[in-house]
Design goal:
The protein is an all-alpha fold. About 60% of the residues lie in helices and about 0% in strands.
Length: about 110
């Protein structure tokens, strides 16, 4: 009986130190917690972005100006009253020259 109790005590001691939830496994558990917390924050931000986009689709909150702006941007169409700003694709800054000085390449 004594040998069985000492063996059981040894098993409990090994589990407390080197087992799956023991002292030595604590570092791995903390690393997993940090990694999963980062993933949770990223997923929560994605969920919030989808919620925001879904609220923009509410019929009471639709702004006709935003809808027409998005539609024109998708279709590459402009209205006669629109002001068009040419942007240099390399720098992302507006082109500051007159329309006579622009070459055919800059219109593309």
């Amino acid at each position: 009986m004594t040998a069985a109790l000492v063996g059981f005590l040894g098993y409990l001691g090994f589990s407390a130190i080197g087992g799956q939830f023991g002292i030595e496994s604590r570092k791995d558990i903390l690393v997993d917690i940090a990694r999963l917390s980062g993933q949770s924050a990223a997923l929560q931000a994605e969920i919030d972005a989808y919620k925001h986009r879904a609220t923009l689709l509410n019929a009471d909150r639709l702004d006709p100006d935003i809808i027409t702006e998005k539609a024109r941007a998708l279709l590459n169409m402009a209205n006669a009253d629109d002001v068009i700003v040419m942007v240099d694709p390399n720098t992302g800054k507006p082109i500051m020259s007159s329309s006579q000085n622009l070459t055919e390449n800059k219109f593309n």
